[in-house]
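Quick illustration for those who missed Monday's session on complexes.
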Amino acid sequence: SDDEDLRPGNKFANGKRDFKKSGKISLHDIVMGDGEDDDEIGLRGANRRRSEASLKRFREKARAIFTAPAKVERTVTLGDTITVKDLAAAMAEKVGNVIKKLMEMGMMASQNQSIDADTAELIATEFGATVKRVDAKPYADQMERMPDPAKLQPRAPVVTVVGHVDHGKTSLLDAFRNANVVAGEAGGITQHVSSYEVKTKSGPMITFLDTPGHETFTAMRARGAQMADIVVLVVAANDSIMPQTVEAINHIRAANVPFIVAINKIDLPEANAQKVKLDLLQQEVQVEEMGGDVQAVEISATKKINLDKLEDAILLQAEMMELTADPEMPAVAHVVEAKMEKGLGAVATILVRQGTLKIGDVFVVGETFGRVRGLINSAGMRVKSVKPGQPVMVLGLDAVPNAGDELRVMETESQTREVAQYRMQKARDKANAVKRSSLEELFARRDDSKKLTLPIILRADVQGSVEAITDMLGEINSDKAGVEILSAGVGQITEGDIRLAAASHAVIIAFNVRADAAVRDMARGSNVDIRYHSVVYRITDEIKEILSGKLAPERRENFIGYADVIQLFTVGKGTRVAGCRMTEGTIKKDAFVRLLRNNVVIYDGKIGELRREKNEVKEVSGGVEFGMSFDKYNDLKEGDRVECYEVEEIKAKL
Ligand code: GDP
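Prediction with guanosine-5'-diphosphate bound:
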């Protein structure tokens, strides 16, 4: 064959295979000639010694190599998700290679599973393919309609109230509602509209979200809806800063929303507004009186003291923000709350953001749709239309949407149905797609031209650890990368932490603390990355690795079981044995164990002995009672929890 002809020495049996042992002539052997006919392509070294005929054949071949088109550029067209198989086909790659690449990135996916577009883009780039992202969204023109800058009009600010439990959030909302909202007419509709408008003493309107608490606020933000323009942080003057006050401040900061402090209960003899202001300084909140720019108003919600001053503070803040909307475009709104209502079907309290919503309008909202059959305002009265900034209850939905969903008025009913169906399908695809952690999300969205900031939520066992770790993390800061601590505190991980992490794509660092089963489930459900640690320097190492793009935790812990210590015995020379009951999973003799007291780690090590009834066993599982001792550790108490975990070695990711 031709190939044999090209092997040096095959035809020139001179015994000199000095150039290469054998094999085809490589591009390396080729030299370009002076451009005269066939001579333009010549050969180096031993390959020069060839017959004319073979040289001719070789030249033809070499020319083919030189003139062949470059490797075909593969373009992958990506919608929201793509199956591994389709991605491989689009790149003309073997499915196995794509699966392998995904595994290197820490993602297990079979060929029929779909992956999200960001991951697919990463993979495609790795294989040298060009990516074209397409927006297959139907009626994108209607879905992305923007307000007309020439038609902008001022609108009412939307305010939410947050603060520690019992500091007076509900009382404050009630005070505003009762003092200012026109009562519903007798026989009117007594539906509770979970947001209301207040006409202030000085004239302008304020809209209050009647869903107090930073949890709701952040839950909606996690769904992409920044509902409130301004937050009122209520702090009771007799209690000052409490844990949820701190939490609320963290949530406000993460959302980057302006806020006003309402120092409540100043009617109480023990009220100390000054202390509140000083304590706020500790949280780096500087009120105006302390030289900062945060407005603070001393009020009493129940005695109705200074409520007008609080209104003025809100209006002043709103004025600085120049809140406007275009009342003429087809309406855009957000769902505040939605439910099934007897006799009315699915109803939703919405907040109109743009345009004017009218009876008869057809709309899509989240994964459902509808036609406006009725509008009930916060005074319980039926109205014909609602303007931007106004809340209203809408009747006429096909199904119950989620809080935070966007509502958009469209041209025809069939369009609304089509968009809703498309979104439902997309949600289904997404549910089936292989999930990525919040950390992987962060990386997928990374823009190399900008500084990479890793948002962190830190929970530790004691204040000393919180401070030490915060300080150490603070030192990780360069032009390229840094961390932002959204929240740091003592105690176990809460559902609020997960919500905040999900909304901010943050990583939770748990130092010697744990999350209970419900919180762990929630974290899994919302793809929040919780990283458990018990050695301080490992945290900084890990964060540095994450930031340098080498997400390479050499070890990851997988929890395999939990048990409660229900009784204690002493055997032999003072070895304490714990009588335990399994609560979850399996305990294995060879795995690692931690002892947790109130979700705080007090021991980390190996099992001494594991016994079921009288026998030594390798593992126990399934709700049984058993006995165990710890390797060189005796300080046990009834009520302690045993956590059993295995350590998985993980290859470099991303
Ligand atoms: P929330 O948990 O933050 O919604 O707090 P609430 O509004 O339910 O108030 C908790 C308690 O504090 C209730 O018993 C209220 O009556 C009381 N409270 C609220 N505001 C004031 C106030 O300005 N002065 C006094 N003395 N009590 C108040």
